[in-house]
Amino acid sequence: MTAAPLAYATRTVTDERDRAACFQLRKEVFVGEQNVPEEIEYDVYDADALHVIAVAADGTALGTGRLLHGAAATAHTGGDLTVGSLGRLAVSREARGLGVGAALVRAIEDAARDNGLAAVDLHAQTHALRFYERLGYEPYGPEFMDAGIRHRAMRRTI
Fold first, then answer.
1. Has residue 3 got a pLDDT over 80?
2. How far is 43 from 141, CA to CA, in rounded Å?
3. For the chain, what percent of residues have pLDDT higher than 70?
């Protein structure tokens, strides 16, 4: 007998409790698992970014991501104000492989559309390229290092 799929929902973060849960997930995944220095994990963009969270039916935070748009995104998008920047996508170890990451990407894309954007850029860790390609993102430009991890820029028109 197989277990029933995990019930969860994604939503835009609107309160401090969700925001704290997002930051805790990022700390567990990026700082704890991937050894990203904590002082560079959180940045000035967090204050104005649109954050999304995936939450299980019991209230457990499963994943998070953020969207930068407008002037905040231009450093990541080559200056194009019609392109948003998806970043800080993190899924808890327990929730990986359950579709949470894809649901978060789609929620961020929906938010980008709602903000009048035409495309979404991201900087994918190279081990995650196939994940993003399955979601319609196309790599461009050379590989680069960020926080000691190999990345590649990707874009999807929405």
1. no
2. 24
3. 97
Tokens representing 39 are 């002082």
C-alpha of 37 from chain center: 18
* Alpha carbon distance 134, 7 (integer Å): 22
Quick one: how far is CA 27 from the chain centroid?
Answer: 14
Which residue's structure tokens are 């698992």? 33
Task: Report how many helices (DSSP H) and strands (DSSP E) the chain contains, helices first.
Answer: 5, 7
64 three-class SS: strand
pLDDT of 112 reads: 97
Rounded Cα distance between 118 and 16, Å, is 29
SS3 54: strand
Quick one: CA torsion of 51, 49, 31, 129, rounded to 10 degrees? 80
Q: What integer pLDDT is reported at residue 128 of this predicted model?
A: 95
